[in-house]
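dude i think i finally got it to work??
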Amino acid sequence: MTDPGPPIVGQVIGVDDATPLEFWVAVAPDRTLQLDDVVALDRTLPDGRVVHIFGVVSQLRARHEGAVFQSDVFLISEGVLPGQVSEAALVQPTRFEPEILVPPLPGTPVRIATDLERDVALSFDMVAHDRRLPAGLSRADEPVYLDFDFVDGTKGAHINISGISGVATKTSYATFLLYSIFHSAALGAAATNTKALIFNVKGEDLLFLDQHNGMLDEQAALRYKPMGLQPGPFRDVGILAPPRPGDPNATPATGSRKLGVHPFYWTIAEFCQQRLMPFLFADAEDERQQYTIVAQAVTDRLAALEEAGDGAVSFDGRLIRTFNELVSAIEDKLIPVDPDDAPDQRWTGRAVGSGTINAFVRRLSSARRHVEHLVRADVSDGRRSGLDLDAHQVTVVDIHSLHDRAKRFVVGVVLRQAFDAKERSGSALPLQFVVLDELNKYAPRDSSSPIKEILLDVAERGRSLGIILIGAQQTASEVERRVVANSAIRVVGRLDAAEARRDEYGFLPAVARQRATILKPGSMYLAQPRLPVPLLIEFPFPAWATRPAEVGRASGDASPSDEDPFAGLG
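look at this
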């Protein structure tokens, strides 16, 4: 480590304070430093020990030395006044080896950290090779790693991604991380049994993860090599989509993909016996409404109904096969034919006013058209829902075409199914990854709902259970604090200027917050526990198809360099 390595790029400045937290480096006239460059320098202590100091360039400045007035720039340029241009770089230390926190001395030579020194600067040397999770590339196409111990629950868990929709490419980066998890050495032998659940919340981009991306040319594919990844599609993918409304055969409602897609729905018996009713009322602030008392009582009564075969239930001698029939039967229990009769308190929970009952009935009735094709026992061929989260390594649940109310219902029910399965197993292994965008809808900061409670359980107890959330949202300031705070890994793409000033992004230095407002698609800030400063990374063009036009095209038909390679990606 005493080898000076690459040529000296500058020296520590003596006219600005140098501290263990930051210091300025004067850039040599024949050298250049860029933002995000990793540098190294040494300081010899009075007792002869040498402290190796490493850091990342976080800001740059250039100025005329010798100028007094702004207009002096013209005189200096014309040679009338003496003066020269100086460049300086602000360095934020990332590591002291050994850990003796002393400032660098003015005049100390500074060099670019490469190879082993770069690994030490970014603490990669502290992570075993088989625990290094490729997380992206530097601007010089050098690999950037995550310590998988902070992903799989060993020391921490969960990943949170923020950024503007359509520009920050949050979903693209989430799927890249998932690809890296399954195709790197991080999981080892556990990769075979590890599962991932992805909710496709917008468009049909995630319905082609198992298809080769025909727009991936050789140059784009080479960016996977430094990370030790082989580009290609996901290996084992199951695609689930809701049935078409009104279709007796429960044909999956997908537009661009027809093959390999299976429908998902719940039978009437499953809806009743698994107590799924509360997930119909997962809108903001619903938990604070009085009618939820009635909803809970109805849920309890439905759970006692017996299955009558093929997913139907027997309700006071009536065979219930459709959601509409179930709603009508519930209304008959809550609203007596004779207005003078009191409602059955077994169904209302306690003595409540007619206004509360009517509020529940109105909301239940309004859910009919949104979820009637998702809760049914009238499928002509009698096939089951197909919601087997263990059938494939990666399961994509497509909900993009559903109404928001139905989306919340599906997300809540599927998450509970996954969470309950992990609790029953009693073991954190095999891991279950969950990818969910639009967290602000499902775990909003200022409301309560059954979905939010499940997401809080995942965030707070998922680490011990082996269920790992890769969550994303446009604005972290609108997501429940505990969901974001429990994420060991934080990722930020392009941000709105107002959002960037929020406290939720306090882990970003001021310069990084400002820079986040102009990040290009495919660039992200990555913050992880092992490093005191976030790193700017890029991730390669997806090797799996992200839209129908990319499926089945010969490699080389189009190049990502012909246009913005991340255009259209979420």
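The mean pLDDT is 89.
im so relieved honestly
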